[in-house]
Design a protein that fits this description.
Layout lengths: L4 E18 L6 E2 L12 H11 L9 E6 L2 E19 L4 E9 L6 E2 L6 E2 L1 H6 L13 E2 L18 E10 L6 E11 L4 H7 L9 E5 L69 E13 L3 E20 L13 H4 L12 E23 L2 E14 L25 H5 L1 E2 L6 E10 L8 H7 L2 E10 L3 E2 L18 E2 L28 E2 L14 E2 L3 E13 L5 E9 L37 E9 L1
Antiparallel strand pairs: 1-4, 2-3, 3-11, 4-5, 4-6, 5-9, 7-8, 9-10, 10-12, 12-13, 13-14, 14-15, 15-16, 15-17, 17-18, 18-23, 19-22, 20-21, 23-24, 24-25
């Protein structure tokens, strides 16, 4: 303490380690296909016959033969931060706070050097690694010119100032105005490093041969007895000859500079053009509070934030002509919509977000046996993450429908966040029911000690996008949007009031959507269509029976979704088939609902 200043400072140092030893696909895996059976045959017979004949194919994932050397990581992280804060009491009505925090974002260190970096410019120029010359052009490793030891440079400019104030508006201690603002950094992101960066070739190589690859090419598997014979070239092992695929195994560690690289190569790296910048959040708020009679507290607040340097995944191998080979064409002559073939991908940090909200709350503190807490939020969260990207520790893996170098990509992907609910209301209450104080002992004991409680919640629906399910844009990414040509919900589709007791089944009007035209990406804006809202009321009734000062028995009756309202397509519902126009068997049809009413009775003994 220095006069009216309360000065504080401190710091933290944290060391983390993650060791992963996963024998992933070290024993090879074979798949035998079961395409649509012909006359007199079943799918199971087809699979068994292919097994006996040694024919490798798999129509569900295109993988017929797979072998790996395991997944290994030995990551070490060092996280540190220091701060200084001054709480200044200006006078009896005003207090202000100033502070500064410094948090450098040091990259995780892979102690055995299992790090790679992809540069599109190097690929286009045909420049190969000096550490592993057999690696494809554009793939580089520590020791190559310009590649940091840990894959990315440290982010050392993370200064986080913050300030706040509290003002007694009228000097009576009943009305206060509070506000604050600050900058915050996410310097750890272990999910990205420890989950996505585990399959780095040549340290954890994988060999994947696909039955959907065009016959005669080097990526198509041979037979069960010789899967590496890729049915091209000359050999006596397979009629028509074969050329052996590269055999990556056994895979020694550390790999020699002459290590072999598979045709199907998984490349995971940071975007070297932006290097690494810690995801940053700018937060601000302003609130007014008022103490009312009867122990009631009212609060109104504006809360806003802006996020920058958020992660997204870029797909570089965007085809200007079309997508990949349909999965069943080579084995059954059947075309499947929506098949895509793209890669490599790269993690970039060029996404932004904004959040603005009005937050109202009222609290009645316990008096006369009753306490109530209610909160209402009117908000909007907007970002330019691709549709379905979501927000998680590993970031967004869904790539944009538009090519990565399209200047309209971010405006195209800008819209309400996947988790955005415009209106949300939550209230809770506890009521200690009055007893019969003047009744006789037995009757009074039966009626005192009862308590009724509950939680009420209601919210409007979350946004989503209707995807076309076809590759009309020609990029091969598989995220084309549909065209909207009418009212998306249609007559009688429960759009007047999302929070009602009406049970909606057909939510979208198929006639209002059509596939996007050739060379276009669709006209539906991100988040312009929403799912139904939800309303739930959980209730509980309890009573305490006191026998002695030490022994007490509690009876509880609890009901979740007490009024058994059907809440369709809640936040946990899958949108995979619901939002896809083609083939569209389940398009717009709600077939998922949250839990119905659930009740439970319980006795609890306290002693």
């Amino acid at each position: 303490m220095v006069a009216k200043h309360d000065l504080r400072f401190g710091g933290v140092i944290e060391r983390s380690r993650v060791d992963l030893n996963n024998l992933f696909f070290q024993p090879a895996e074979f798949s035998f296909c079961n395409p649509t059976p012909g006359p007199g045959q079943t799918a199971s017979q087809i699979v068994f016959n292919n097994f006996l004949a040694g024919i490798l194919c798999d129509y569900t994932s295109n993988v017929a033969f797979r072998q790996g050397a395991g997944e290994f990581k030995n990551n070490r992280g060092l996280f540190s931060g220091v701060y200084f804060q001054d709480n200044y009491k200006v006078n009896r009505r005003l207090a202000v706070t100033f502070g500064l925090r410094y948090e450098p974002a040091l990259p995780w260190r892979e102690i055995k050097g299992r790090v790679e970096q992809f540069r599109l410019s190097g690929l286009m120029a045909g420049v190969h690694s000096t550490q592993f010359p057999n690696a494809p052009a554009g793939v580089y490793f520590p020791g190559d010119p310009g590649v940091p030891e840990n894959g990315v440079e440290a982010s050392l400019k993370n200064f986080a100032p913050r300030a706040g104030f509290a003002l007694d508006l009228f000097g009576d201690g009943k009305t206060s105005l509070r506000g604050g603002a600050g900058i915050f950094y996410d310097t750890r992101i272990p999910g990205i490093i420890n989950n996505r960066f585990v399959d780095v070739t040549p340290f954890s190589p994988q060999l994947i041969l696909s039955s959907a690859t065009t016959a005669g090419s080097a990526g198509r598997p041979g037979t069960f007895s010789d899967p590496l014979c890729t049915q091209s070239g000359t050999s006596s092992k397979v009629p028509g000859g074969c050329a052996p695929a590269a055999n990556l195994f056994p895979a020694p560690f550390p790999p020699p500079s002459s290590a072999t690289f598979a045709l199907n190569l998984l490349v995971v790296s940071w975007d070297p053009a932006h290097s690494y910048q810690a995801p940053t959040l700018y937060n601000w708020n302003l609130a007014i509070e008022r103490q009312l009679p009867s122990s009631i507290l009212m609060r109104a607040a504006y809360v806003g934030s802006h996020g920058s340097h958020l992660k997204e995944t870029l797909a570089f191998n965007v085809s200007p002509v079309g997508g990949g080979t349909p999965r069943l064409n080579a084995i059954a002559g059947t075309n499947v919509f929506g098949t895509t073939n793209n890669g490599p991908t790269q993690d970039a940090q060029d996404v932004n977000s904004n959040y603005h909200s009005l937050q109202l709350s009222a609290e009645k503190r316990m008096s006369h046996g009753l306490t109530i807490l209610g909160n209402y939020t009117w908000s909007k969260s907007i970002d330019d993450l691709p549709n379905g990207g979501g927000v998680a520790d590993v970031g967004a893996d869904t790539v944009s429908a538009r090519p990565w170098d399209d200047p309209l990509r971010h405006p195209f992907d800008r819209g309400p966040s996947d988790f955005d609910h415009t209106h949300r209301f939550v209230a809770s209450y506890v009521w200690q029911l009055p007893g019969l104080s003047r009744a006789n002992g037995l009757l009074r004991q039966a009626f005192i000690g009862w308590e009724l409680g509950g939680v009420v919640s209601a919210q409007t629906g979350r946004p989503f996008i209707v995807v076309s399910g076809v590759n009309s844009s020609g990029t091969g990414i598989g995220q084309d949007r549909a065209n909207l040509i009418g009212d998306p919900y249609g007559p009688g589709a429960c759009v007047a009031d999302k929070i009602t007791t009406v049970s909606c089944v057909d939510w979208l009007n198929r006639a209002s959507f059509q596939a996007n035209g050739t060379g276009t990406f669709g006209n539906i804006g991100k988040g312009s269509i929403r799912l139904p809202g939800s309303f739930t009321w959980d209730m509980g009734l309890s009573k305490n029976f006191s026998f002695t000062e030490r022994w007490k028995l509690q009876f509880r009756a609890e009901f979740f979704n007490a009024f058994n309202r059907a809440n369709f397509m809640d936040d946990s519902a899958s949108l995979t088939n619901f939002q896809k126009l083609i083939p569209g068997s389940n398009f717009g049809a709600i077939q998922q609902a949250a839990e119905p009413r659930i009740g439970q009775l319980a006795l609890k003994l306290f002693f």
